[in-house]
Task: inverse folding
């Protein structure tokens, strides 16, 4: 019996599963005759682009509320190996023995992960790459008022000024003030942005940079350019220029890479470890395997490539799932034709900035851009407990044309926004 397996419970994985279910339904095939399974060890789909905000533990949706209505099985297990020759996957659930499962079509949508630095005191670094990490940071911040009064208690050092770093730093100003002022209004709140390059937001280009610099100045965020962190402890951060910053909080946002499962696929990969896919999102030279989201790189117009971004994860997921099912059912495959690339970057109390195109021409700033950003942050949520609406939204041709932020998560070809 044919079976479609999707690895990954993020945007690309969930929409791959829903799109495959849509093709199955349109073909009049019963779920029992073409099983679709999504592998993800967690019970929730994490809204990763919002983990820089407060209350990150609220940024999740039960996967079963999306998958069960469209007859997709959620297998709470992690994939550890993929044998593309035999079309088998090695999986293991928490506390369980490893087992194998077979596939006819596979969609690898296991996402990306932050590259943790190896430097003295790295255990004191926080990040917002996963819900667990973001929750740990949130708890740390709320614990600051109970610490002894010391210089740097309400100082945060943010390392990296890409998409994620800018959003973390600008939001951190508000978060620290909200935590410090009720208890210690006289204490200084400082946010310091560290960047190895000689400009802020090197990956964002020159288009939005004046807006970013104005926002940082408005919020009082300090900049340290042409430098990086060389070591730290729980009270201070040492920089490569020889200076030391008293700071009880350090957040790392620099550098992302595709999930290591891409290395189990015998395909070509780019510098971020992403699998190179053809216009149908099929991994080149590997029959039966598609890739979507942060694990895949597709060529676009004028020599550009897909970004590790929420915008491309949605679109690639829908198409990969469609084509994975279409290939089995003998339906014509469709090529990848994403909407024009846009970004909408949150700037905390300074608003937001919307850009369009690969040169990131500024289209909207301030409160109007912030209003759009809030709308986008709601639009990226999938519908739940409604099969008809889930399948409707899974149609790659009729997908919402709401312009989503391209939040690259790697020094990111994004850092997507992770959004």
Result:
């Amino acid at each position: 019996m044919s079976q479609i397996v999707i690895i990954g419970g993020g945007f690309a994985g969930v929409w791959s599963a829903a799109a495959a279910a849509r093709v199955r339904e349109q073909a009049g095939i019963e779920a029992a005759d073409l099983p679709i399974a999504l592998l993800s060890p967690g019970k929730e789909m994490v809204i990763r682009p919002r983990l820089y905000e407060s209350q990150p533990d609220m940024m999740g949706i039960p996967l079963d509320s999306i998958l069960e209505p469209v007859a997709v099985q959620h297998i709470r297990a992690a994939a550890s190996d993929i044998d593309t020759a035999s079309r088998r996957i090695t999986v293991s659930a928490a506390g369980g023995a490893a087992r194998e499962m077979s596939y006819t079509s596979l969609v690898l949508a296991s996402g990306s992960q932050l590259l943790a630095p190896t430097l003295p005191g790295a255990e004191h670094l926080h990040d917002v790459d996963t819900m667990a990490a973001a929750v740990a940071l949130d708890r740390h911040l709320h614990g600051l008022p109970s610490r002894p009064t010391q210089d740097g208690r309400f100082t945060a050092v943010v390392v990296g000024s890409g998409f994620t770093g800018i959003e973390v730093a600008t939001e951190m100003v508000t978060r620290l003030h909200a935590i410090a002022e009720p208890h210690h209004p006289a204490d200084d709140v400082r946010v310091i942005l560290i960047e190895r390059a000689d400009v802020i937001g090197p990956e964002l280009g020159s288009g939005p940079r004046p807006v970013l610099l104005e926002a940082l100045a408005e919020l009082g965020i300090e900049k340290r350019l042409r430098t990086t962190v060389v070591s730290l402890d729980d009270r201070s951060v040492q920089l490569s220029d020889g200076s030391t910053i008293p700071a009880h909080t350090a957040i790392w946002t620099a550098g992302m890479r595709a999930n290591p499962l891409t290395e189990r696929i015998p395909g070509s990969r780019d510098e971020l470890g992403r699998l190179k896919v053809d216009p149908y999102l099929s991994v080149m030279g590997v029959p039966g395997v598609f890739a979507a989201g942060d694990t895949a790189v597709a060529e676009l117009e004028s020599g550009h490539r897909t970004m590790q971004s929420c915008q491309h994860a949605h679109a690639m997921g829908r198409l990969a799932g469609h084509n994975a099912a279409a290939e089995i059912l003998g339906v014509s495959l469709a090529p990848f034709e994403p909407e024009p690339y846009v970004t909408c970057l949150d700037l905390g109390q300074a608003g937001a900035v919307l850009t369009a195109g690969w040169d990131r021409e500024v289209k909207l700033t301030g409160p109007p851009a912030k209003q759009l950003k809030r709308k986008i942050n709601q639009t990226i949520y999938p519908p739940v407990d409604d099969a008809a609406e889930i399948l409707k939204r899974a149609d790659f041709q009729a997908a919402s044309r709401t312009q989503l932020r391209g939040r690259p998560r790697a020094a990111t070809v994004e850092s997507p926004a992770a959004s």
